[in-house]
Request: fold
Amino acid sequence: MVIVDAPGHEKEWEEYVSSHPQAYHYHQWRWKAIIEQAFGHSTRYLIAREGETVHGVLPLTLMSSWLFGRFMVSVPFVNYGGLLVSTSAAAKALLEKAEAIAREIGARHIELRHIKPVGLGLQSKHHKVTLLLQLAQDVETQWKQFDCKLRNQIRKAEKSQLSTMLGREDCLEAFYAVFAQTMRDLGTPVYGKSFFASILEQFPTAKILLVNKEAATVAAGFMVSFRDTVEVPWAGSLKEYRPLCPNMLLYWEAMKWAMQGGFQTFDFGRSTPGEGTYRFKLQWGAVPIPLVWEYWMANQKKMPDLSPKNPKYQVAINLWKQLPLAVANQLGPVIVKNIP
Reply:
C-alpha cells in the first residue's frame, strides 16, 4: 500500500469519494480549500493506493494554538470526516502515515470523526450524537406525522406573520448577524463570515434560509446537501423573538424544501444527549445516531477535552456572554479557528 499526498490527484480523490457509500459531504475535496482559505490552516490530504487503484483517503487539518498545542483533526468545524476506506489495510496504512506526520510536527493527538469505530484499537469518545429524520415522500404526509404540539407551534409562527426567504450570497449578511448573536449568547466564539462565504463559493447547492418578522431577520439556517441528505449544521435565532416560534418555521420550511427536492433524509446536526437542542430535534421525530470520535495519542493517556462543557472553560464562557456583540464578532474568529 502506497500513501501519496493528494495535490495533483484531485480527480481520483473525488471519484473515490463520490463512489464510496460511507462518504460524507465533508470528505469532498473542496473542503480543503475552505479550511485553508477561511482559517489559514495547513492540510494534508492522504490517498492510499495500490497501483492505480485507490483504497482509501484521509483528510487532515493541522492545528496549533498556545492553549491546546499542536494536533490534527479530520475534519474540524464539522460533524463528520475521518478515515474513508475500502480495506482494513488502507485504514492501517493511512493511520500510520498520519502518525508519522503527527510526530514530525510534534502534534499531541489526532482526532478522527467517525460514525463507527474503524477497528484500529484507538481510544474513543461517544459524547455526541447526530439526529436524522427520514423524510416522508410528500409534505402532507410529513405534517401528519408530527404531534399536535409541534403542529401548533408551527402554526403559531405562521400566524405571527413570520415569512421565509431562501437564498445564497444575498442572505449571508442577515444569516451571519443572527448566527453571530446566537453564538455570543451561548458564550461561544463565532466563525468568521468568510467561512460561510467560502462554502457558498465552493458549493453551488448550499443554501441559506431566513425567517423574517417584517424587515428584521429573527432566525436563520445554513443548509448543505449531499446525495439524498439535507443537513443544517449551523442555525440560530434571536432570543427576544423565540416566543413567536421562528425556529419551528425555520426547520419546517427547510424540510419542505428538502422533500420538494426529492431528498430522503434531514440531518439536524450533532447535539449532546439531554440538552435543549437535543430535545428540540427529537420532537420532530429525529433518531439519535451515536458519533464515535477516535484518537491517536502521542504521549498523554487522557483524551483531549476541548468541549465548552469542560468545567475549566466555564468562567471564560460566562465572560464571553457579557461581551458587546461587536467585540465578540471581532475576537471570535481569531479564537475559534483553533477550536475544532
